[in-house]
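Handoff note, outgoing to incoming analyst
You'll be picking up this chain. Sequence as last confirmed:
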Amino acid sequence: TVVIDDFREEQLVLLKLYQTAFAGQDVRVDQTNISIDVESVQAGKDAGANVIYHWLLERDPQAIGHFISIGDSISDYEMARYFAHQGVRSTFVYVGKPTGRIEHHDDVEFVITSQQYAAGVLEFLNDY
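Most recent structure output, in case you need it:
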């Protein structure tokens, strides 16, 4: 539980940073069991990825080297696909229930954990 406690603590720090950075914008910032979702209220996860990507571009373009998107649903894959379309190295870590319904993009590294949800995230992070 120490690892999950550390994750939750760091997650709250990141949540506050995102909430401050995106205050007043048409973006929803939500804490979930495994992540922090940044989504346009008018579109899907790829729109949230667009916001994050451009936010980083404005601050430090050199910092953009590899995006790792972690998700438990098919719609989460859109984040990784968006980053790949920007020409950035992109990995998607799927921690949801087994499904064959995710259409893979050639430029996205696809990782499936043996465990699901928070346990899957921790599995990936411990191996990373």
